[in-house]
């Protein structure tokens, strides 16, 4: 059952990542990877909410949404690739913003989600 829940969540998370990424990136100019940045922050918020409220949620919901959906929605490999690409292209400020900003904002948003989830 766990494998099916992860597959189902991933089947929704992966196309969601693509659609959100394309939607955001089409509306932003410049070299900064706003689409990937956005989906990773959304994933941090959802994972924070799930972790904070895990004591009240059934385990299958956490598996479906946390492991399946968020696992397919978020992407560390693309984050890393885009950061290196920015460095190789000489876009040092954007690379730093992507790496440091993503880590700081991602942690802060996950903590916020955790606090909200724990309060529910």
From TrEMBL:
Entry binding sites for Na(+): 71, 74
Activity control, per UniProt: Na(+) is not transported, but it plays an essential structural role and its presence is essential for fluoride channel function.
Spans traversing the lipid bilayer: 32-50, 57-79, 99-119
Catalytic reaction annotation: fluoride(in) = fluoride(out)
UniProt entry tagged with the keyword Lipid biosynthesis: no
Classification via InterPro entries: FluC (IPR003691)
Principal location: membrane
Subcellular location(s) per record: Cell membrane
The keyword Transport belongs to this UniProt entry's keyword annotation: yes
Keywords in alphabetical order: Cell membrane, Ion channel, Ion transport, Membrane, Metal-binding, Sodium, Transmembrane, Transmembrane helix, Transport
Entry superkingdom: Bacteria
Membrane topology per record: Multi-pass membrane protein
NCBIfam families tied to this protein: crcB
Family of this protein: Belongs to the fluoride channel Fluc/FEX (TC 1.A.43) family.
Function noted in UniProt: Fluoride-specific ion channel. Important for reducing fluoride concentration in the cell, thus reducing its toxicity.
Record PANTHER family: FLUORIDE EXPORT PROTEIN 1-RELATED
Annotated protein name in UniProt: Fluoride-specific ion channel FluC
Organism: Actinoallomurus liliacearum
């Amino acid at each position: 059952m766990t494998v099916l829940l992860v597959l189902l969540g991933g089947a929704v998370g992966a196309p969601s990542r693509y659609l959100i990424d394309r939607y955001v990136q089409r509306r932003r100019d410049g070299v900064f990877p706003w689409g990937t940045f956005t989906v990773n922050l959304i994933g941090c918020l959802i994972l924070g909410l799930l972790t904070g409220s895990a004591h009240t949620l059934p385990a299958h919901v956490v598996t479906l949404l946390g492991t399946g959906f968020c696992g397919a929605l978020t992407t560390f490999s693309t984050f890393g690739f885009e950061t290196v690409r920015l460095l190789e292209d000489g876009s040092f400020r954007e690379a730093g913003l992507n790496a440091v900003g993503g880590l700081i904002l991602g942690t802060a948003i996950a903590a916020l989600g955790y606090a909200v989830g724990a309060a529910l």
